[in-house]
Amino acid sequence: MLALLSVFVVDTSAGDGVPLMFLEGEWVSSDYDCPAGVFHKKVAISISDNDMKAVNADSEGDNCVSTGSDSFRGSLPSELSMEQALPIVMILGWPSRPACCTGRAYIVMQDVDNFKICLQSDCSRRGRNWDIGFSRIKFVPQL
Length: 143
Known about the structure:
- It is a single chain.
- By secondary structure, the protein is mainly beta.
- The protein has a single domain (about 20-140), classed as Lipocalin (Beta Barrel), CATH 2.40.128.
- It is built from no helices and ten strands.
- The protein has strands at about 20, 25-35, 40-50, 50-55, 70-75, 80, 85-95, 95-110, 115-120, 130-140.
- The strands form two sheets. It has an eight-stranded antiparallel β-barrel. A two-stranded antiparallel sheet has the order 1-6.
- The two termini are about 25 Å apart.
């Protein structure tokens, strides 16, 4: 029996970008909390053309965005440059009004396996602004 294993390698050392398709798959964050003090968020990201959509994939959901609801979405370029802030729409809510509102946020690739969602394009933490880091759990390439 012959088993084939596909290995995907992206060299970003020369300032190259990451193909948008590399965002597809499952990601987790331990920076996100809702309710307060409960830190965990799992999203499943899908790509269609240049449109990215992240759906809350936590089996229990959270009190601010229920399971199966969009967490964030945006229209992005076909290649993502490292540390470049790209605007997206973040779905917001609180326990008494889950997924009630939207707000502008930014997605910033740190490397092929990590990105941040920030409220400010420079990802600073001024005032009540925050950032949420996500790490890859599972890569599902488009073939």
